[in-house]
Write a structure and sequence with these properties.
Elements (H helix, E strand, L loop, with lengths): L1 E5 L5 E4 L26 E9 L11 E9 H5 L12
Antiparallel strand pairs: 1-2, 1-3, 3-4
């Protein structure tokens, strides 16, 4: 799940990827389109869950961790790909 926010706005849920079954190295297809404002710090938080059922309620699933970055870091990265450790 992607949460996006800026200094002026509170964090809000932006979207979810598709579910990838039974892999430690998922290759997601869904892409997120965000407006990039060079002069504004746009914080991103990625939450990772192990889904155990079809329920949309995330409290029913195992939280594996989260990663943080800014949209500027993604835009400035090679190929738009950025790796971060889970916290």
């Amino acid at each position: 799940m992607l949460n996006a926010g800026s200094l002026a706005l509170s964090n809000s849920k932006f979207g979810r990827t598709e579910v990838i079954d039974n892999t430690l190295n998922p290759d997601f297809v869904r892409k997120f389109i965000l407006d990039y404002f060079f002069e504004e710090r746009q914080n991103l938080r990625f939450d990772l869950y192990d889904l155990d059922s079809k329920s949309e309620n995330l409290s029913k699933h195992d939280f594996l961790g989260q990663a943080f970055c800014t949209l500027g870091e993604v835009v400035g990265s090679l190929g738009g790909r950025l790796e971060r450790p889970l916290m």
